[in-house]
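Assess this today:

___
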Amino acid sequence: MSVVSRRQREKEQRRKDIINAAEKLFFDRSYDNVSMNDIAKEVELSKATLYLYFDNKEALFFIIVLRGVRILNTMIKEKVDERETGIEKLIAFRKAYTDFVSNYSDYFKVYSYFQSGRFDLESIVNNVYLQEFSENKQYSIIASIFPPPCPSFSEYAIDIINLGKEIFDLCCDSIKKGVEDDTIQSNVNPVELTVLLILLSESTANIRPDMMKELESNGINKHKFASDLDDLLGNMIQLRLSRNS
């Protein structure tokens, strides 16, 4: 192995070590309670060395969030692709999201914080959607006359938003297919229902403690609540298949 190859491997390993150390601290303490000094101490490197690999703490946090969203994206794709009808795909989508929240709670926690308003995501989201719209010929003509601003965004944040959009589209396409194959009633708006389902999936993972006490006092745990919610949503959109998938 050449000296250059060995040094490159050492550099890549050091980068992974920094990310893993940051992940451990973000999971244990939360974003605002972790500093670059803390990460340097955890990975046994100088703070100056950290800045050779990452611009700031935010970039490191986004990498951790991206890890989790990639897992969520893969889980949803695998579950949805296994099903045939629209409603089966929609049930699989909900199941995959619930499994992710249950099995990867730390990643879900940092993903939720990413979307909490702590970071300026509106400009990033606008940029991602502008790129999509620019593929439209009519929009391209307008953009050539009035080009949108092109600020520099964190590549990791953009990747997170793009994966989130893929997840959104998977749910929306499942609903559209359900309308087409007559397993979901035709008067639902796929975009509105997708927003509702994703918001419910995220919010039910963060039930207020007082609300959870109310449920538990009535013999309802989180699993049963999620199941009952699926039944309620099923009735709302007139599912025509039993929930045995």
Summary: Residues 58-119+157-236 form a domain with the Tetracycline Repressor; domain 2 fold (CATH 1.10.357.10). The radius of gyration is 21 Å. The longest helix spans residues 3-29.
